Amino acid sequence: xxxxxxxxxxxxxxxxxxxxxxVRHKLEGLLNKNMRIRMTDGRTLVGLFLxxxxxxxxxxxxxxxxxxxxxxxxxxxxxxxxxxxxxxxHVVSIEVEADSxxxxxxxxxxx
Length: 111
Description:
Helices cover 16% and strands 38% of the residues. With 111 residues, the chain is α+β, with helices and mostly antiparallel strands. It has a 6-stranded antiparallel sheet, with no helix packed on it. The N and C termini lie close together (12 Å).
């Protein structure tokens, strides 16, 4: 089970400052949590969230790569990558695994 995290853009400068603080706190709460990132070429990377930047580039630690399968029932064996940098323009979706959010407060995860 995974939880999608989404942030809507602010409409005023004051909301922008508050919103960016909230986003920063949310991101800090996600450090070292397991994430699943789907990419534009169909690959999926799973690993620990280590950092991101303004361009939405993401660095995962202990990452594994899963190739897009032609058979919907088989995912195949993962390829171990270790440390991986995913360019922001290749990110389609990011999911945080619910199991890794058990210790995190304020993400709306039902226990």
